[in-house]
Amino acid sequence: MPRSLWSAANYVNFSVSRTHTLIYSSANTEIDRQLCWYDRQGKQLSKLGQPEYASGPQLSPDGKKLALRLLTQPAGNFEIWVYDLARGLQARTSFSGLTVSGQVWSPDGLQLAISHSTQQASGDHMYLLQADGTGKEEPIEQPSLESLGNYPSSWSPKGHLLLFDHQDKSGKISLWLLPVSGDRRPYTFLETPFNAQMGKFSPDGRWVAYVSNDSGKDEIYVVPFPNAGARVQVSTEGGSQPRWRRDGRELYYLSPAAKIMVAELPAGVSDFRVGAVRPRIRIERSYRSPGLSL
Q1: Buried b (16+ CB within 10 A) or exposed e, 208-244
Q2: Chain-centre distance of CA 4, in angstroms?
C-alpha cells in the first residue's frame, strides 16, 4: 500500500451494508482479528467467521459478498478471499504467491482490481481478478510505469474507469485514472505538491472524495469529476477513508480519534454542499486499519 496509508500501530477494519449494518474487525491479539456486524449506533449484532489475520473488508455492490485480505499459508503472504455472506463460506480468489492489496469491486460485482509486486519489475502494479476465483489474473497496466506503486481505490459507476493512488519515486501520492478497456493508458486526475489519495467516486459519478495532507494533516475533500475544479473540505478535525452512502446522501470517513464520522449531503442541489458533520460510531479498540465501504 502507499506509505502514508499505514502507521506503526492502531488499525481498524469496517464496512457498511446497503441496510446500514456495520461489519467490524476487532483485534484481540496482534495477529487475529474478529469480523463483527455492528448497527449504526455501534451495537454489535453478530460475528462473521473465526478470528484470523484479516484486513480491508470490502462489500460487493449487491451486499451479498465480502472481499478481504487474509494471511494465507504456507507462503505467509496476504491473498484475497471472498466470503459468501448468505452461506457463511469463504473462498480464496487470488493465487499470486505475493502480498496482495487494494481489492476494489467492479460495479457489476464480477471482478476485483488488486495490486501486488512482480518479479520482473519494481513497485506494485494493478491486476484484474474474477471474483469467483476462476481464470488467471489480468495485468491492466504496463509494469514499466515509473513508480513505487499503483493501488486501485474506486471504480467509476459505469465501470469504464479505475481511480487509483499513484506513488512516485519520491513517495508522493497523486490520483490517476486508468481506462479499463481500450489502450489502458493511465493519466493524471489530481496532482498537487502534497499527497492526494484514497479517491472514491460518488454514486452518480459527478464527484470524487479524497484525502489530502496539504494543511499539515489528512483531511477529506471533494472535487467535481471529470474535471477536478474547486474543492470543498468535508472533515473538520482530520480524516481518512472517505466512503459514500449508496444513494449519495451521506459521506462517511474515519477521524484520527477512531470515530466513524458522517457528513450529511443535501439533496436536490446542483453544486456540492456539506450539511451537518457528526460522529456516528466510536471504535473503542487498540488497532485500526483501512477498510470502510458503503
Answers
A1: bbbbbbeeeebbbbbbbbeebeebeebbeebbbbbbb
A2: 14
pLDDT in tens, 43-75: 888 888 787 888 888 999 999 999 999 988 887
Of 253, 176, 177, 189, the residue nearest 221 (C-alpha): 253
Per the CB < 8 A criterion, the answer to whether 262 and 277 are in contact is yes
Give, in degrees to the nearest 5, the angle at Cα 231 between 230 and 237. 155
Q: What's the chain's length in residues?
A: 294
pLDDT digits (tens, 9 = 90+) for 192-217: 999 999 999 999 999 999 999 999 99
Name the nearest CA neighbour of 58 among 1, 10, 96, 106. Answer: 106
Helices first, then strands: H and E counts in the chain: 0, 24
CA-to-CA dists, residue 167 to 1, 246, 294, angstroms? 9, 29, 25
Counting other chains too, the contacts that 16-20 makes at CB distance below 8 Å and 24 or more residues apart are 16/59, 16/243, 16/252, 16/292, 16/293, 16/294, 17/59, 17/63, 18/63, 18/246, 19/63
Which is nearest to 102 in space by CA: 2, 207, 203, 212?
A: 2
Is the entire prediction scored with pTM above 0.70? yes
Q: Look up the CATH number of domain 3-217.
A: 2.120.10.30
Cis check for the bond before 256: say yes or no (omega within 30 of 0). no
Distance CA 6, CA 275 (A): 30
Domain residue ranges of the chain, discontinuous segments joined by +? 3-217
